Structure formats: structure tokens, C-alpha cells
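It would be a great kindness if you could assist me with a short task in structural biology. The matter concerns a single protein, recorded as an amino acid sequence and a row of C-alpha cells. Could you please explain, in whatever detail you think fit, how the C-alpha cells follow from the sequence? Thank you for your consideration; the sequence and its C-alpha cells are set out here:
___
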Amino acid sequence: MTTVLLSLGSNVQPRRHLHAAVAALAERFGAITVSPAYRTAAVGFDGPAFLNNAVSIETDLDLHTLDAWAHALEDRHGRDRSGPRFSDRTLDIDVVFYGDLIVEGPGHLRIPRPELKHAFVIKPLADIAPDFVDPVSGLTLEALWRAHRQFGDAFEVVELGPDEEG
């Protein structure tokens, strides 16, 4: 079994889509660890704020099968891939870490994900897996978060749920 760390995000009915995604991950992978969901500004475009969280799973799926499963889950939630790269999302699920694997090269799949530099990715990951070691830097997620320029900033925590009130 491989420890996999996922980053989830949404800015279109985000409480509902993240709640459903976490439920689908738990149904497929069993015991999972879920971070709080944080409200953060859109990055790379002007749009509604995102909710972002992280999930840790254990799986025997290979990386490409897992990535395809995550894309299919995004698609079931109405993910539109026809627009610009930085745009509104019903659901975005990124495999940030797949054990200690490093994947670079052609194609869209890069592990660890380059978005690791953003607070909306690193903070939730550090919440659930502070001792996980980034295979590129050799640092724990807690150390990476403590070194981040936004470490110490206040982040709004939002409860996930099937409705969109609040």
C-alpha cells in the first residue's frame, strides 16, 4: 500500500462538491485522513474564493490508475476542462504526493505537484501529514509549511456539507 496525499479544491458550490468528494474517497479507499477546509483567494485569475483541503489515503492503485479515477470523480462533478487553466472549478483533485515517487517529464502528471508552493496546498497537507517527507527537498511538510511566507497567517476554516449556506 502506498500513502498518497491529495489536494482538493472548488470555487463553484465548494462546500457541496468537497463534501461529496471526501465521501467518495472514503467509500473507495476506506479510512482516510481529511484536513480542515480553508477559504482562499483564487490564484491566477479573478474569481470567487476557493475552498481547499487535503486528504491522505492508502492505496494499491498505481499512480496513473489513481489519477484517472480522480479525473473521473472530477468529471462526475461537472468539471469543465475546456476553459483556461486558471478558472472556476466545481472540483479539482490533484495527486500531490504518491509515496516517495518523483515524476517529471511529458504529460500533465508531475509528482510532487508544482502547486506545493501555494499555501492552499501546503497548509492542509501539513495539517494531516506533518511528518511526511517531500522526496525532492528532503524536508517534512511541517518544515515546508513553517518556512512558507504565509506561515502564521490566519486562514478561515469552513465546514463542508451538502448545502451551500454559510
